[in-house]
Design goal:
Elements lengths: L1 H62 L4 H6 L5 E4 L6 E7 L5 E2 L7 E11 H5 L6 E11 L4 E13 L3
Antiparallel strand pairs: 1-2, 2-3, 2-4, 4-5, 5-6
């Protein structure tokens, strides 16, 4: 009788070890999945905030008739490098890690840059279009790793004589 009780105990301990090993393996997998979900969630937040910042900049640029100086006046801390016309140049905005606008490049985690180019309307809209137009590329960059988060392209018909 003692031998039978001892063999059941050994079998029970072996089964317990297998179950503990299984739960350990499953817990490691779950921890890795939660960590991957956190990274994916952070990336998703950055993409959404980048698109929001780009669309905001594009809307103001369009409302200001593609004039970069007037657009820059609506964004405190904006850096502006102008070109030959009001639509030519580069407008740069900086954001901290929480996507709050800042004026200091040194403390920035993200950068949104609008590069505007003045052109003939016919170049953008075809032969029938007359007057002036402007095109802009707006790019959001993660400065912590140098990667592009999102890119938006837009244009605006300014009008006038060809």
């Amino acid at each position: 009788m003692n031998q039978k009780a001892g063999s059941n105990t050994a079998l029970f301990l072996m089964e317990l070890i297998v179950v503990i090993g299984f739960f350990s393996l499953v817990s490691v997998i779950c921890v890795r999945l939660f960590a991957a979900a956190r990274v994916t969630g952070d990336a998703s937040v950055n993409i959404n905030q980048a698109i929001r910042a780009e669309e905001s900049l594009a809307e103001v640029w369009t409302a200001k008739e593609a004039d970069l100086a007037e657009t820059a006046a609506c964004f405190p801390g904006a850096r502006l490098e102008t070109g030959d016309s009001p639509a030519d140049g580069v407008l740069t905005l900086y954001y901290d890690a929480d996507w709050q606008s800042i004026s200091d490049e040194g403390g920035a985690a993200f950068r949104v840059t609008l590069t505007g180019t003045a052109t003939d309307a016919a170049d953008l809209y075809g032969e029938g279009a007359q007057g002036a137009a402007a095109a802009a590329g707006i790019e959001a960059v993660d400065l912590t790793n140098g990667s592009r988060i999102h890119m938006l392209e837009t244009d605006h018909y300014i009008g006038g004589a060809g």
